[in-house]
Amino acid sequence: MKVGYYPGCSLHSTAADYGLSTEAVCRKMNIDLAEVPDWNCCGATPAHSTSEFLAKALPLRNLILAEGTGLDLVVPCTGCYNVCRQTHGFINRGSSGAMDVNSKVASVMGKRYEGKLRIMHLLEFFSQDEVLAELRTRVVQSLNGLKVVPYYGCLMLRPAEDVAFDDPEQPQVLDQLLEILGAEVRPWSYKMDCCGGSFAIARSDVVTDLSAELVKQAQRAGAEVMVTACPLCQANIDTRQAGTGMPIVYFTELIAAAMVIPGQERWLGKHIIDPRPVLKSRELI
User: Fold this and answer.
1) 184-211 pLDDT per residue, tens
2) What is the CA angle 176-180-181, rounded to 5?
3) Residues 166-171: contacts with CB within 8 Å, 24+ apart?
4) What confidence score (pLDDT) does residue 204 get?
5) In what order do the strands lie in the sheet with 73-75?
6) What is the DSSP letter of 70?
7) Which of 18, 130, 189, 268 has the most CB atoms in a 10 Å sphere around its CB?
């Protein structure tokens, strides 16, 4: 299986652990990640505060490049996914502003965005029947009842009209994936709450409070780890816990553990709150 792949800036930097585990899992499953040629930063949260045009033009350039490959596009970063999907919807709604942005970017790229590209979050991609069936055949060891809470964050499924691939109030795709891997998914009411990511620099006190509350509620739910698919959420909660010690891991890292993929130290060792003691206690690494 071959798909287009847009890693975005974070998977080459602060979320290298997410990138490495994603690539290792996909290799094991014979999924060919064809990186979009000459991709650029999508602008994520900073662009809209600088220029409304850039906020659409930056992701639009990537969408034009991806559409040109003829492949579906898989995006692991929730921020990038959100921006790409919102831009896709903006262009397809066909307002005069959308046509103007598309024309201006086309004057540089040599072609317009036709709006036919299928854009999937990595979690959505893994929730497809065909991929789940392959995943089941690759699981070597159960996660042995590892107690987890799934954390989707606020960007993955909202605004629903542009980005939702699951229920934006009570999503289940990550819950179900973790159960397939043999984890014990603990019920909690904070899976969609914001971690404060966009305020990381401007209002770090707000971020610290929000992250601390998430960790407290995860512990109250009986979780040993929080599981996410968002680099910004992972970085915020991993670094702003005030010493409480709740590991926050990417779902691809747990897939890798269930598949017993060699070389897991390459990504597990990059966390601030080290998940290895918990995984070792469950004999998963």
Assistant:
1) 999 999 999 999 987 877 788 888 999 9
2) 120
3) 166/124, 166/127, 168/192
4) 86
5) 32-35, 2-5, 73-75, 119-121
6) T
7) 18
Contact 113, 60 (CB under 8 A): yes
Q: State the sign of the Cα–Cα–Cα–Cα dihedral 89, 92, 95, 101.
A: positive
Exposed (0-12), middle (13-18) or buried (19+): which is 246, by Cβ within 10 Å?
buried
Beta bridge partners of 74: 5, 120
Q: Could you give the CA distance from residue 12 to residue 21 in angstroms, rounded to a whole number?
A: 12
pLDDT at 14: 93
> What class, spelled out in words, does domain 2-122 have in CATH?
mainly alpha
CA distances from 41 to 12, 81, 116, 183, 216 (A): 11, 12, 21, 35, 34
Provide the whole-model pTM: 0.96
Domain ranges of the chain: 2-122, 135-281
Fold of 135-281: Rossmann fold (3.40.50)
Residue showing tokens 């798909």:
3
Burial of 104 (0-12, 13-18, 19+ CB in 10 A): middle
In the beta sheet, which residues pair with residue 3? 33
Q: Is-contact 153 115, C-beta < 8 A?
A: no
Percent share of the chain, pLDDT over 70 = 100
Identify the helix (H) or strand (E) that includes residue 37: none
Four-CA torsion 10, 14, 18, 23, nearest 10 degrees: 70
CB-CB contact of 142 with 219 (8 Å): no
Q: Residue 49 corresponds to which tokens in the numbers above?
A: 């505060």
- Pairing mode, strands 2-5 and 184-185: unpaired
Average per-residue pLDDT in the chain? 96
Number of Cα atoms under 13 Å in the Cβ half of residue 85 = 25
